[in-house]
Amino acid sequence: MNSARLTLNGNEFELPTLVGEEGEVGIDIAKLRGSSGAITLDPGYGNTGSCRSAITFVDGEKGILRYRGIAIDELSADASFEEVSHLLIHGELPTESTLKSFTSALAANNDLPKEMVTMIDAFPKDGHPMGILAAMMAALSTFYPDADPDADLDGVVAGLMGRAMSIAALSYRKQKGLGPLPEIDPSVSYAANFLRLSHAESGKEYKPSKVLEHALDMLLIVHADHEQNCSTSTVRMVGSSQANIFASMAGGICGLWGPLHGGANQAVLEMLEQIQANGGDCTKHMELVKDKESGVRLMGFGHRVYKNFDPRATIMKKACDEVLGELGIEDPLLDIARKLEKIALDDDFFVKRKLYPNVDFYSGIVYRAMGIPTDMFTVMFALGRMPGWLAHWKELRDEGSRIHRPRQIYTGYQARPYVPVADRG
Ligand code: CMC
Question: Could you tell me if the CB of 303 is within 6 A of ligand 1?
């Protein structure tokens, strides 16, 4: 098959088709409006391919997720977040020496200008850390106006990821009253440094537990990319106007924040706490979810693409059991989550709609075990997703994409005259 035929108002149009590396078929409508005058309408973009991409492959029916061809199960079990970041951004796993220089560049570029430290301090104490991260990411462009990813991609990437970690850690410290950021340790991983920058108390030695470091590394990897999701599409949208790299990342952070996307990890935890506070009655909560009038969703369930299982959720559930087991934590919220999952998997409402746990269903329980507060969960997702956003931003630039500018089907008034204020009824 190499073309599709469209009949519109008695006229026939031939549309080229294309087949991706994994066999997915697309109809190329790039010239449709020019030849037929018509556009397509696809609210929510469930049927629209916005680009060609060589970064991440997802097969929602089979529950497959691969970064640059490598399965997420392998990467989350064997690779480090630094390796995965390099893989996503550059397309290949790093050599030993490249990995070393990338890891030290991340540690060497985490300093924040003192004005930014003052700005972070000036936000309300309970201001949401995602608001702080988005604002500070955009603010980085004012301190580093000469950052040029075309001339020094690795330097800009290291500065962006390193400083994002410091902004996140500093907003956590502000919340907890822990004072200024401690020194970074260039000999340890990104995950260990995040834990250090967040938790180390002034004047005290701090060494994160290997269990937590490993778990955080895995969490960051599992979140690192997911093809054309809402936040990544936002990064591409903003980047397509040739806005700077910091502005593009700030756009991604804002897209991620919502509870239907990355903000679901916070919403899941709040849902579990609410069920616990109401006596732990999971059946009652599920009745509410199934009542479409209630507007209540089972947070951490369902996915636009995965209609069988989310491979990230499988990894996350296992990690949750391991981390809590190794730390000797018994979290009653985990029992509630397990009960909700069991009810959902046996209930026709969820089965018929192909709703399964997604990556966010169990991640919050692991973050909680690490001592990370609920409103920081989505920030953790953002730190993990940063290399994915950067990889997509680079891909967009490399292909010289046109500005993204969708069309619409207009549903408003037809032309009508202006009425002076004195004549309005
Ligand atoms: N609880 C109850 N019903 C649901 C849920 C849910 N979590 N998700 C979907 N449905 C129902 C929905 O009401 C609809 O029913 P009907 O056909 O009777 O109208 C049907 O399932 C299809 O839902 P949809 O809203 O058309 O699905 P979507 O592909 O537009 O939305 C989603 C995907 C993830 C936004 C949605 O499943 C959802 O809201 N889930 C809860 C929020 C969540 O966990 N988000 C995290 C996603 S994974 C992290 C990431 O973003 O990468």
Answer: yes
